[in-house]
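Wait, can you check?
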Amino acid sequence: MNWSISFEPLLSWPLLALVLVPLALLALVGLWFRQRGAVLRLVALLALAAALFNPVFLNEEREPLKSVVALVVDRSQSQDIGDRTRQTDEAVAGLQQRLGRFKQFDVRVVEAGKSDAAEERTETRLFGALEGAFRDVPPSRIGGAIMVTDGEVHDTPSGTPEFNAPLHALITGNDHEKDRRIRFENAPRFGLVGKPLDMSYRVISTENETGPVDVRVSVNGEQVSVEHATVGQAMPLQVTIPGAGRNIIELAIDREPGELTDTNNRAIALVDGIRENLRVLLVSGEPHAGERTWRNLLKSDASVDLVHFTILRPPEKQDGTPINELSLIAFPTRELFVEKIKDFDLIIFDRYQHRDVLPILYYDYISEYVEKGGALLIAAGPEYAGEASIARTPLMSALPAMPTGEVVDKAFYPRLTELGQRHPVTRGLDGSATEPPHWSRWFRTIGVQNPQGEVVMKGADNRPLLLLDRKGEGRVGMLLSDQGWLWARGFEGGGPHVQLYRRIAHWLMKEPELEEERLTAEGRGMVLEIRRQTMADDPGPAQIITPSGKTLAVKLDKSEPGVFLGSVQTSEIGLFQVANGDLTALAHVGPVNAPEFADVVSTQERLKAPAEATGGSVRRLASAAGSDVTLPSIVPVRSAGEASGSDWIGLRTTDDSVLKAVSRVPLFGGFLGLGLLLLAMGSMWYREGR
């Protein structure tokens, strides 16, 4: 019971003052002058005042509230190492049993580190979970917190925790744990394709050893070297970036006997390969309406260095003008096609014909250039079907089709073939989805016979219009019309000439995105996404090997012609291997080199400062691997008392309560109050009458 007194005046306070103050002054004056009956008058005044003030005794019935205690359980992946999971489970069960004995505690169990969110899977954020547990609790009701963790907490506050209650940490693992890890010290995100990239790394050991160790260096899953490193020292590394786009550089060291885990014996760096400017040689024949189409396109591409020559003056055109008076330079054939031909990524012959400008032997050099990995594009016009066609030179061995000598002058809409609808060069061209296509017509097709490679576009009478072929290690493209400039000039609405021409050029120069058969994988959050480009009707399922060694099969569904997609949700973080047919790919899911695996040795140091600042404690659950879990006793303590001892931990109790009922007892109410008031007034009247 909680007794208290309260006043419930019958009149307002100003009116009470107006009535009682003059009476009080008169009573006091009477006492001062010692008048007869002054004491009785004062008593009667007090009785009247008490009746008007109406004092009431209150009896409050209250129910005490419980202190809220948070039991924060670390379920991060580092807790799966060794006996930590067993220690955690035993500790949580024991703590729940002991806390259940105290009726004054409201226990809230919060598990952290097992969410599907990538950030929570890669960092142990126990204080964020603790804040969430106490979000709806007033500070006066917080009894304390107990954390069961390995001590590797990544959101430890720099100062005192916001709640004023003891924080206790029970550490899993054991003393004298051993681990060795590797990490990148310097890993640029970009590198030039084919050029060495300077990086650095460090091998770290918990025992501060300084001996030698072998480090395996792999690029995109293929081991390229074995480096000899010294533990504890920053070591330089040079890696050649093999291709454009995403490249995965992996460092790995062997597992030592007694190590906790080999998860952090690997380090990953993602490097985007950037190609240096592509060098293109464009050789145009005599000027024609579409001559500048290829030039303008290539000049507008910042990644292309263009060398362009136009044969304005063939050898047979003699007008007697002295050589030193010609305004244009001579064609440096030997320098371009003998000395520096290997420097070019692509050679384009735009309506070029053999007119003794190039020695016949140089066509052999061009064929050899293609066989050894070069790229050649023939933008054919009527010259390709004539007597001076380059198909009648030694270059014929590199060409995908021979001319029939026929030039078809007939209006037609360029259309994609069935292969062209799946081929990355022509797939999804703007305007190709309608019939007829939503672009302008062309009016000339060069006839060819026995085409090789892939016919991805067709012209008049379904004749081949665009051929793409591989020759040895190189590639050859052939556009069998010189009417592409109609699209560039906007004739009948124009067409996607920039999109088409650029794709042709980049496919010839082996851009990875335009490969017909390509398998890529990428991690987005905790989802592994797979993309398969293929000319086949069905590539079949993709096979996945997870970082833990598990094997999965993922179905690939068709998203558009030539493209199949698949995805899988995963809880593992690390490097995934994906295979489909003869193709393989690597992908990293989750943040690279996540803090969760950077240091897996259990420690008491990270939580010592916040625990001591709140009067709590940090202690281990087990002293050695395989030993039994030892839990401290739990003691309820007052707010000002000690909260920890050698074998016990304290949790504070609260003085807060909730009001359930109130009983009222008026002191001057009813007949009792009336009687007292009449007695006082009557006594005063009696004394005054004598």
